[in-house]
Design brief:
Blueprint: E1 9-10, E2 13-17, E3 49-56, H1 59-75, H2 83-102, E4 109-117, E5 125-132, H3 158-165, E6 168-173, E7 180-187
Parallel strand pairs: 2-3
Antiparallel strand pairs: 1-2, 3-4, 4-5, 5-7, 6-7
Helix pairs in contact: 1-2, 2-3
Length: about 200
């Protein structure tokens, strides 16, 4: 089944956006970076397949990102109902929900990127990246001590879930403006040759 957004597919890459984004040089841009964000983001790994899109910073945008990620993973050879598929979709759900809850700046979108990294010295990997425009609220680094979340709270466990499901995760400052990118990588079982799969 072809979706209306699949017309953006070119050579294994899908790009698109859900609305007309505001420019990145608006008055809301930070004049100087905050001191704790002085790390250089890593260069993106070469991907066999990518899907990226901007979504409104709303619960609806987060649900749509999760749904499109599930569809794209299935098209890439990670079928619905498998452990790897479900783990990646859950990671997408947590990262996009965090972008909406903690990274929301009124009038700004979040950017979602899903990449299938080819097998090489390491197993095949799916990388999830979610970029928001709020730079002053950053998650703790992986392995950093965090306060205990009382059992009666309904929130506060998303990063613990990501730590349990992902092979590795971290965050870095957004290179082209205010904000941050939170990413997670999940090593997966071998998928069919990605060059034979259609986007």
């Amino acid at each position: 089944m072809r979706h209306h957004w699949s017309r953006y597919a070119t050579d294994g890459t899908v790009d698109g956006m859900t609305n007309n984004p505001a420019g990145l040089t608006d008055p809301g841009r930070l004049a100087t970076p905050t001191p704790h964000l002085n790390t250089t983001p890593p260069a993106p790994a070469p991907a066999a397949r990518t899907f990226q899109m901007r979504f409104t910073s709303t619960p609806r945008g987060a649900r749509l990102a999760r749904h499109l990620a599930a569809v794209r993973l299935d098209a890439w050879g990670l079928p619905y109902g498998t452990g790897d598929h479900d783990a990646v979709v859950l990671i997408v759900a947590e990262l996009t929900a965090n972008a909406v809850l903690h990274g929301n700046v009124p009038g700004r979108d979040f950017h979602f990127r899903l990449a299938l990294l080819p097998a090489g010295p390491r197993p095949a990997t799916v990388r999830v990246e979610v970029t928001d425009t709020r730079g002053e609220r950053v998650p703790p680094r992986p392995g950093a001590p965090r306060p205990e979340v009382p059992a009666v709270y309904e929130t506060g466990r998303g990063l613990l879930l990501i730590t349990a499901l992902a092979t590795r995760w971290d965050w870095h400052p957004r290179p082209d403006g205010p904000g941050k990118t939170v990413w997670a990588e999940c090593e997966i079982e071998a998928v069919p040759d990605v060059h034979l799969l259609h986007s």
